[in-house]
């Protein structure tokens, strides 16, 4: 089954030191039916929404912070002994970064 991914993002620099980021993305499901998914990959179609900021400390170093929210379709695992369901799953991601150029 074919799948696809689409995303749109935006970056804004209010001044030389700051860069603000935001965006969203969509992933189609790679399962024909959400009633028979794998325990190792129970995801269906998914939406992602993210925001972040980066601050330039010096010309060679910066710090960043970002957050993403992911929500996907409900799915079911039909194989025993792991039979069960994932109803309205969502995940939050938070990341912090430091970059130094040499």
Helical amount = under 10%
What form results from the Cα inertia axes? Answer: elongated
Task: Report the order of strands and helices.
Answer: EEEEEEE
Structural class: mainly beta
Proportion in β-strands: over 45%
**Low-pLDDT sequence parts:** none
Report strand order across the widest sheet: 1-2-3-4-7
The quaternary organization reads as single chain
Q: For the record, give the distance between the C-alpha atoms at the N and C termini, rounded to a whole number.
A: 45 Å
Average pLDDT across residues?
Answer: 88
| β-strand number | 7
Rg (CA only): 18 Å
What does this structure look like?
- It is a single chain.
- By secondary structure, this protein is an all-beta fold.
- It has no helices and 7 strands.
- A hairpin with a 6-residue loop joins strand 5 and strand 6.
- The mean pLDDT is 88.
Compose a concise summary of this entry.
It contains no helices and seven strands. It is mainly beta.
Please write out the topology.
Blueprint: E1 5-12, E2 18-27, E3 46-58, E4 61-72, E5 75-77, E6 84-86, E7 90-100
Antiparallel strand pairs: 1-2, 2-3, 3-4, 4-7, 5-6
């Amino acid at each position: 089954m074919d799948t696809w991914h689409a995303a749109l993002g935006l970056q804004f620099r209010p001044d030389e030191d700051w860069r603000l980021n935001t965006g969203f993305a969509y992933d189609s499901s790679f399962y024909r039916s959400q009633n028979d998914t794998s325990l190792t990959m129970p995801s269906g179609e998914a939406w992602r929404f993210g925001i972040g900021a980066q601050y330039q400390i010096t010309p060679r170093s910066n710090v960043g912070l970002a957050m993403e929210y992911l929500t996907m379709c409900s799915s079911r695992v039909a194989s025993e002994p792991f039979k069960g369901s994932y109803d309205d799953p969502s995940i939050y991601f938070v990341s912090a970064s430091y970059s130094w150029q040499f």
